[in-house]
Amino acid sequence: MSRDQRANDNWALLHAQEIALQKNLPLVVAFCLSPGFLGATMRQYGFMLRGLQELERTLEMKNISFRLLSGTADEVLPEFVQEYSIAHVICDFDSLKIKRIWKKNLATRLNVPLTEVDAHNIVPCRLASQKVEFGAYTIRPKIHRLLPVFLEEFPALQTQPTLWEHHRATDWQQVWQSLTVDTSVREIDWLTPGETAAKQQLNRFINQSLNTYHERRNDPNAGAQSNLSPYLHFGQISAQRVALAVSAANVAQAAKDDFLEELIVRRELSDNFCFYNPNYDTFDGFPNWAKKSLDEHRADPREYVYSLEEFEHAKTHDTLWNAAQTELTTTGKMHGYMRMYWAKKILEWTRTPEEALAISITLNDKYELDGRDSSGYTGIAWSIGGVHDRAWFDRPVYGKVRYMNANGCASKFDVKRYVAKSL
Fold first, then answer.
1. What's the pTM value of the predicted model, to 2 decimals?
2. How would you write the chain as a 3-class SS string?
3. Residues in Cβ contact with 384 at an 8 Å cutoff, skipping those fewer than 6 apart
4. Do 293 and 394 share a domain, yes or no?
5. I want to staple 65 with a disulfide (CB 3.0 to 4.6 A). Which of 164, 176, 235, 251 is the partner?
6. Judgement on whether residues 298 and 398 belong to the same structural domain of the protein
């Protein structure tokens, strides 16, 4: 178990149980805890580990063992499989290249079957499309055509007949003490981690905010967002469960349509981009028209140029940008509309697109609860490099990449209120 850290509504775990029951064998969930993962801090590790602690308790009630291994999967799983004579390994799907490298290495070191199950996307990424898509308009019909096949109710996780004979409780105190990650970015306290809290948040969103989501989703002051992205990122809730619940909700169809477009089409488009484009986090991953246009404007004078440190500490001339950065560092979650403005201004205030991309990814992954996610990489690539977008009017620095400014934000929401709330 890696990307989808939950007991319920988990196709990978359900498939593993199916095989275990067929073979009349016990079932164990192994989680490989990497000592450092792409700059993740205590904020992200804390949210994840607290969710895993709940997961262990939930699995034990189903006679399923949980074993936390220290190290990357390709390093520690082969020895674990050999030591305990594991018969079959099932893993979940991830579009990020580092996870795919680990999985590829693992496959060469195992002498038992290795099966990958896409438990993250509703329409499995490999089935939705076999190539990198130009945009939402090209992948949308492919996903909608397959949704009736895959958007179905989950079977329940069963109780295993027997508990693994090598079952033992995790020493969580030792796990916490073993962490060597950056502790300067503290855990957040406004969102409770774990599968139970994720379901509660989903119900809260449906009951309180979904009905007006289509009208207020671009207003950072409205409180209209679902706040499910951290849970979706860590797999503490299934996107499929969210889609089923939202589809069944007694609210305006326009609200459901807008939310499901983001949850399914846009989210799965991000996995498509990262899975089929190995350069998703570099300048080379941008479309040719954007690279050409940005190259033509490399020498353009920048009115302002800021360093990573100045960006990180919200020391720009723009109070709106500073408010967005402050929201990010203090809460671990920046409003989706502000993420676009935030990244585009980093492009405008750095010397090169490469520097803008690196700074955006560094700050996003350091402070966002859902950092190191395909949606984050894709959103930044859209903002800075025109990914999944079209060419716009040519202008300094941006070239033909879509431009955003504070006046545009002011036309959509009360900027002064947002700034006052965040700063």
1. 0.97
2. CCCCCCCCCCHHHHHHHHHHHHHCCCCEEEEEECCCCCCCEHHHHHHHHHHHHHHHHHHHCCCCEEEEEECCHHHHHHHHHHHCCCCCEEEECCCCHHHHHHHHHHHHHCCCCEEEECCCCCCCHHHHCCCCCCCHHHHHHHHHHHHHHHCCCCCCCCCCCCCCCCCCCCCHHHHHHHCCCECCCCCCCCCCCCHHHHHHHHHHHHHHCHHHHHHHCCCCCCCCCCCCHHHHHCCCCCHHHHHHHHHHCCCCHHHHHHHHHHHHHHHHHHHHHHHHCCCCCCHHHCCHHHHHHHHHCCCCCCCCCCCHHHHHCCCCCCHHHHHHHHHHHHHCCCCHHHHHHHHHHHHHCCCCHHHHHHHHHHHHHHHCCCCCCHHHHHHHHHHHHCCCCCCCCCECCCECCCCCCHHHHHCCCCHHHHHHHHC
3. 286, 343, 344, 346, 347, 353, 356, 357, 360, 401
4. yes
5. 164
6. yes
Single-letter residue type at 313: H
Residue 18 has pLDDT above 90, yes or no: yes
For the purposes of burial, counting CB atoms within 10 Å of the CB of 140, is it exposed (0-12), middle (13-18) or buried (19 or more)?
middle
| Mean pLDDT over the full length of the chain | 97
CATH number at residue 325: 1.10.579.10
Same-domain status, 18 and 109: yes
pLDDT band at 147 (very low <50, low <70, confident <90, very high): very high
* pLDDT attached to residue 44: 97
Residues 6+ apart with CB under 8 A from 89: 77, 81, 106, 110, 112, 113, 114, 115
Q: Residue 422: its pLDDT value, please?
A: 87
Q: Is the pLDDT of residue 38 over 80?
A: no
**End position of a domain, from candidates 120, 141, 173:** 120
